[in-house]
Design goal:
The protein has 207 residues and is α+β, with helices and mostly antiparallel strands. The protein contains 4 helices and 10 strands.
């Protein structure tokens, strides 16, 4: 029997604790000793963890008030770790599922000119209903629309932090509640809004 692994995708609420962790990641116990710079060409060893630099999320930074003062708010998404889980990846445009948003497919088509980029758990955020899709306007994922494969697997490394991305809403409608759904896309990831699995949902009211 073949089983699909359902992976949680959770919104990272920027509480004071989370701000401290991701703005000053070296405060995480054991991180300074195990920290390395990672890339699609340079995966970490089994006892190392990848660097997450706050400056890579510009303009979604604390110094920019996470875009809220300029009317372009940012939300942060993290993929919760599952001990020992090794993701599978799509490997061609033909392998992408029909339900994936076309805008994300277009981005993937551009990004995977570097074939290593296929080793990504892709993420897209959009409005839940037709009205929400209109209200949300255009969005941009920073630094890229997905979680790089070099963050996986998590095997209990000291100092490990879940990978995150920022999603900036460039000009959302003011004064209305916008229902936003963000989904992770990779083979084996199940989307279930009732639990929720493979997705995160958030309501945004921007005055």
């Amino acid at each position: 029997m073949r089983c699909s692994l359902a992976i949680y995708l959770s919104l990272l609420a920027f509480s004071c604790a989370n701000q401290i962790i991701y703005r000053t990641p070296l405060l995480t116990e054991g991180r300074e000793e195990t920290l390395v710079s990672c890339s699609y060409e340079k995966y970490p060893s089994s006892n190392s963890v990848c660097n997450i630099r706050p400056e890579d999320f510009k303009p979604c930074t604390a110094s920019n008030f996470f875009g809220y003062k300029k009317g372009s708010p940012c939300i942060f998404i993290e993929l919760e770790n599952v001990l020992g889980w090794k993701p599978r990846y799509f490997s061609s445009m033909k392998s992408l599922p029909k339900g994936m948003p076309q805008a994300l497919k277009d981005q993937i088509d551009d990004l995977t000119a570097n074939v290593k980029m296929w080793e990504t758990i892709w993420v897209a955020c959009e409005g839940l209903t037709p009205a929400d899709k209109e209200f949300i306007g255009s969005t941009v994922a920073i630094p890229q629309p997905g979680f790089p494969g070099y963050f996986f697997p998590y095997i209990g490394q000291k100092g490990y932090l879940n990978p995150i991305i920022a999603v900036q809403l460039e000009r959302p409608q003011v004064g209305v509640i916008i229902n936003i759904v963000c989904k992770a896309w990779a083979p084996g990831i199940v989307h279930n809004a009732n639990k929720p699995l493979g997705m995160a949902m958030v309501e945004l009211l921007f005055d």
